[in-house]
What we know:
By secondary structure, the protein is mainly alpha-helical. 52% of the residues lie in helices and 5% in strands. The chain is built from seven helices and three strands, in the order αββαααααβα. The protein has a three-stranded antiparallel β-sheet.
Amino acid sequence: IRMGMSNGYKLNEKTKEITAYHEAGHAITGLFLKECDPVHKVNIIPRGMGLGVTMSVPEEDMVLYSEAYLKSKISMLLGGYCAEKKFIGSRTTGASNDIEKVTEIARTMIMKCGLSKNLLPFNYQEYNSLEEGSITLSEDVKHKVFKEIEDLITEQMEVTFNILEEYRNVVEKMVEMLLEKETIGEGDILKILQDCQIEQEKIPSYLFQK
Length: 210
């Protein structure tokens, strides 16, 4: 229900492989960043406008979002983009929606929520309007704001690349299973981690609770 019905589109082998690496990138990043929402299911069946889905859902309703959680969210969203670049050797338009979400989270963190390293906790978003009578940010301030957003995304992208490098054998194993089954759940994910001899303390505890 959450993922929607298959749209019936059949992927060719190359696109299917790229999609498998893309979704595995999201999933592996989410599995090994403690602040990420639990990863429940991964599939490479086209649904709606998407070619695949990695389903992660919070364990409980959230009303506050920590800086660490939002940074991990950015890293997980970048997982597909980074996996394509690292394992395929090229990038596609498949990450466009992820990049849109990453940009929005990073902009909100820096411009509205005061979650920057070097800027004062100030609502820069409110004063960047073109409405009559509004205060327009100076070019110097705009540059500083953009630099904070750029640095945040760059740092989290590095986190993602490091995870994919450390667990590249898990990525390859997940891609292999996705190409075979197209949809994998928590039991499959646990088997992949165990087959790759990942230490039990590094395996998310929620995978053992089903």
